[in-house]
Each structure stands twice: as structure tokens, then as C-alpha cells.
Design a protein that fits this description.
Layout (H helix, E strand, L loop, with lengths): L4 H8 L6 E7 H6 L2 H8 L4 E7 L6 H14 L3 E6 L1 H10 L8 H6 L11 E6 L11 E6 L2 E6 L7 E2 L4 H4 L3 H20 L5 H23 L3 H21 L3 H13 L3 H6 L2 H10 L10 H11 L5 H14 L13 H10 L3 H4 L8 H8 L4
Parallel strand pairs: 1-2, 1-3, 3-4, 4-7
Antiparallel strand pairs: 5-6
Length: 367
Amino acid sequence: MINSIEDIKKFINDKKHKKIFVLCGKKSYETSGAKELFKAMLSEKEINIFYKKSELPILKELIEIIINVKNFKPDLILAVGGGAIIDYAKIANVVDVRPDLAELIKNYVYPFKKKYTKLAVIPTTAGSGAEVTSNAVIYVDGIKHSFESELLIPDNFFLIPEFLISAPKKIKASAGFDAIAQALESLISKKSNSKSVEYATKSLEISTKSFISFLDNPNKINATEMSIASNLAGKAISISKTTAPHATSYPFTSLFQISHGHAVSLFFENFFKFNFDNLERSETKFDLKKRFDLIFRIFEVKNIENFTSKISSIKKKANLEDNLLNLNINLKNNSEEIIKGINLLRLGNNPIKIDGKDIYDIIKKNN
């Protein structure tokens, strides 16, 4: 599953890849070591480098990327970066620029039938698992929307642990918690199956033991472990999709610029407590109580109170603040916009039916 620099060299040197469109973040491309690596590797190729500018994947920049790709006509799109970079590349490789694109996205209509060219991705964060997922996100008018299609899955991906080590601790913390959250949400998602449970369980068995050491003392060993955990979590949610914590995180990213994994962590324990306390209302085809028992075994706890305490402890060690007042978020003044920005598609996967009032009651506990 883990790759070497030689694997990338061999792939890039393939004679089929004459024109390569490189999509990356200017800072992460340099600090990860990717820029130095690809400097010599791409010297014999015709390349076009596009540096992402927006913090979030937004429609305006996506259109700019699509136009650049179509004008350049590459044999290969190479995305090097975090989840936003990879999502941009995945969507740009299947979507054409058209006047009604924004409306189609808002209505979850996917205007694509084939890939434009070959897509390879190299993550520089361990969190989203975007290199293996069949979905990608884009913000339109400040609201996050999801694309879902098998066409979005990259043709190739390379996991290079060395690229993760130099990322700022804040980015590592956000991305790493995202991987943990994805695996946990996958286990209780209505769409989960035996395969997603297998991926999610393996992911958590690794991430729960490696996440904090990766933050405090990043090295090749724990970077490798977090790469694998993230990849497995991505495979899990590609099957099951995510639930309420992810659905509720989106407006906190778009309205208050809280990074994705951090936003997912804000009310994570509260949502899991809500699901556990309402087991009798479960809409799952599987025994939800048994899934919680599995979660408790993985986290080496006896009950939901111990589990929520352990999640809170992980967040504290990772410096993931969840008090809204400390984050300068006025819930009363922004509640309408927050509820409006929640991703209903993700909310529908929650094992217990949940509405706007439930969500408000859950998130106000952090006020």
C-alpha cells in the first residue's frame, strides 16, 4: 500500500505521459518536499503547474482549473496536496464548463459521463482518504455540495509518508481527526456493509494508536501508519458515506473558516451520544448496539460515557478547540445560516433520524 519515490519515478517516466498538468498548493508543494522531487523528474516532460489559491474548493477556481486543463490537453493530471486539491482534480477531470453548472451542482445532478484524461494523486496530508473515494466536494455560494460517482476515483494514487512529516501540526491534527471520524461514522452509517466495517475497523486500530505520536513526534513510522489509516478510512466511507458530524461540519468551515477535520470534531461526542441514547429509533438494517460494542472494544472503553471522554481527550491532546465562544462563534446570531448550510445528503446516512431542532440542541452544548 505504501509507495517509494522510485514508484513515482517509474510512473512519471512512462512514455505515455508526455504532457502533465500538475495541480498543487504552493506552500504544501514546497514544504512537503514534492517540489524538489518533481523538479528533476518532470524536466523531460511538458508540464503546466496550477497552484491552488482558495482555502476551500470553490466553483470559481474549479472553473479556472477546468479551462486550464482543457487548453493544455494533458495526458495526465497529477494532483499533489490535501483533500481540497484532490477533490478539485477529481471534479475537473469529469466536468465541462457550462452556464448551468452551479444549478446542476446545487440540485445534485452530475453532468458527466466519462473522464477527460488519466488522473494520479499524491496526498500530502493523512486524513481525507480522497485518493480512493468516489466522491468530491465543492462550495457553491458558500454551501458545500457533494459529487458522487465511480468516475471520480483516481486512476492511480501514491502514498509517500515522507510528504506528511513537515506539514504544520494544526493541519496534521485536523486531517488526522478527520480520518478517525470517517472510520467511526462509517461503522454506524445506514449504508455500511461488511467490507466497510472491515476497512473502518482496521483504520481505527491503527489511528487510535498512532495519531497523537504523529502530532507530537512525526517520523516515517507513524506517518506511514497514518497514511494507511487514512487510506482505509477513505475506502470505508466510499462505501458507507459519512453521517451527522460531517453533515454539520460544512457550515462551520464555510462561515467561520474552521478547517474541515476540526469542524467535524466540534460536536463529535455529542452526536455519538445522541445516536447511542436513541438506539431504539435506529433505522439501520444491522444491530446498531453491536456496532457501538465494536467501537467500545476498539477504543478499550466500557460504555458511551467512557467513549465520549476518550474522544474529548484525543481532541484536547490535538489542540482541537470545541468551545464556540472560544472560537468567536455566536450560535444565537448564526443558527439560521448554520442549519441552512448542513449537507442533507450526509445527514440522511445517520442511523437515527435527526432534524434541525435536534442539531441545534446538540451544538448549543458547546456554547
